Each structure stands twice: as C-alpha cells, then as structure tokens.
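Progress report, Aim 2. The chain analyzed during this reporting quarter is listed below.
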Amino acid sequence: MLGEKINYDAELDPELIQRLADYLRDHQSLWRAIVGGVLGGIGGVLFWLLITHVLEREVTLMAIPLGFFVANGIRRFGRGIDDGYGYAGASIVLIGAIIAHFASLLILEARFMNLTLAETLESRDLFSIFAEHTGNLDYFFVLLSCWMGYRFSFYRVKESEVETLIDQFQKNQNP
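Predicted structure tokens for the chain:
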C-alpha cells in the first residue's frame, strides 16, 4: 500500500526476484527507448536553441535539461533495466549536445556578423568557430549531462507498483 513502509530486513526469495527481473526484461524495448530518447533529444536541443536565441549568448548549462529530456524519454518509452539503456541515453545526449552547441555558436556568429547562416558557414570554418568558443566548462557540462543521460535512463519500480507488478507476473506464470 502507499502509506506502508517495506520491511527491508525481511528475507526476500532470490528466485522470485530473479523471475521478476526476467519478467521486467521481457517487457522492455530498446527500440522504443531509442525513439523516446531521440524525441527527448530533439525537444532538448530546441529548448537549448530557444534559450540561446532569447539570451543572445551560448549557455552550455542547457546540456543539463537535455540530459533529463533524453533520459526521461528512454525511461518512459523503453522501461529498460539493462545497461544498454544507459548507454543509449548517454550517446543520444552527447550527439544532441554537440549538435546544439554547434548550432547555437553558428546562430550567434551569424547574428554577430549580420549574415545569414549559409553566409556564415561559407565565410568561416565551423570547427574554428567551435574551437574559439568552447572551453573547459562546456566540456564539463556536456560530460555531466552524458552522465545524467546514463544514470536516469533506467526504469525504476516504484513502491506503489510492486504489488501490481507481482500480480501481473503471477497471472502470466499461472495461465
């Protein structure tokens, strides 16, 4: 029940725990997790670019919400408990952070030089812009967001779900 505390001192049946973990593995989906992570990543990148546009400066701190958006999408869509879900979260966050960082620097450079994005790309090398405007703090926030993408991508069984999950598990075991 919601108000009850679980007695962690009570001995749990290891066989039941293993069967329950197998049940959770049977109901996870890496493909759905990747779709959810990519959707979260797109939302996070757009949010990052919106903040860049409003503040008229590159804010790498926006990698943190990107990590949460991606991890939330992976956790909700995939419901995974294996390491692959964390690796997918970290990878999608890293790709999204690189894209958002490049895009925000390109937008700001174009605005500063009063050029279109295409003219900015023609007049400057994208990697030189990246090298000029990227520092250690940027790397720190991107790495932190990758860690968040890994750490928060796993499905966690809530106390309120335990009884329901055990009931579903037992119904599937006893046809």
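Residues 165 and 171 are 10 Å apart (CA to CA). Residues 30-157 form one domain. These observations will guide the mutagenesis work planned for the next reporting period.
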